[in-house]
Specification:
With 222 residues, the protein is of the alpha/beta class. The protein is built from nine helices and eight strands. It is globular.
Length: 222
């Protein structure tokens, strides 16, 4: 059984950025489960499947072979033999992932792979249900969050930096809607595990959040 750190939290809380830094500090493997769900979403979009067509999603999800590899030290998400990292962070894929991830067949497929990785490797894994479903026995669990306003500002600045036109109020509304969807879905809803430590990153730097999680890890794991 690997030594596992489970980091859960809503979209835009900084989970991926922080998880990468924590993994690097401990020489652990970083597993971006959100990217795995986004790869499934990309597959469904390319198949022309509606996010509301649960039956078709269930029927097709087994056709998606999704794995994680490390290429030149960087994590790559492989979908049916091709590296799809460059296509995973669009709004379209993100919205499809939030909707398709509620499908129990999709979650079962992803969870099985994630559990296997956690059994075999020392990992830092982030997502929505890692501490509650995927790695319930992880010795270190973190619930990383930030206010909707702060998360919207972060996303707005990201889009501005890329030269993409955006409306801050629309971004905030979309984040709030995604939070509600993730927290109220029937299967494996987003919630803080009973034994998880709450970390609010709203007014913390990346290094401060990283140091806080490493402190929790050393306290719980040694």
């Amino acid at each position: 059984m690997g030594k596992n750190i489970a980091i859960d939290g809503p979209a835009g809380a900084g989970k991926s950025t922080i998880a990468r830094k924590v993994a690097a500090a401990l020489s652990y493997i970083y597993v971006d489960t959100g990217a795995m769900y986004r790869a499934m979403a990309l597959f469904l979009i390319e198949k022309g499947i509606s996010p509301d067509d649960s039956a078709s999603i269930s029927a097709c999800c087994d056709q998606a072979d999704i794995s994680i590899e490390y290429i030149d030290g960087e994590q790559a998400v492989i979908l049916n033999g091709r590296n799809v990292n460059a296509f995973l962070r669009t709004e379209e894929v993100g919205n499809m992932a939030s909707k398709s991830s509620v499908n129990p067949d999709v979650r079962a497929k992803m969870s099985a792979l994630q559990k296997k990785i956690g059994r075999e490797k020392d990992v830092v894994m982030d997502g929505r249900d890692i501490g509650t479903v995927v790695l319930p026995d992880a010795p270190c669990k973190i619930y990383l969050t930030a206010s909707v306003e702060v998360r919207a500002q972060r996303r707005y600045k990201e889009l501005q930096a890329k030269g993409v036109e955006a409306d801050l109020s629309v971004i905030a509304a979309e984040i709030a809607e995604r939070d509600h969807r993730d927290m109220t879905r029937e299967h494996a809803p987003l919630k803080q595990a009973e034994d998880a430590v709450l970390v609010d990153s709203s007014y913390m730097t990346i290094d401060q959040v990283t140091d806080r999680i490493l402190a929790v890890y050393h306290e719980k794991v040694g």
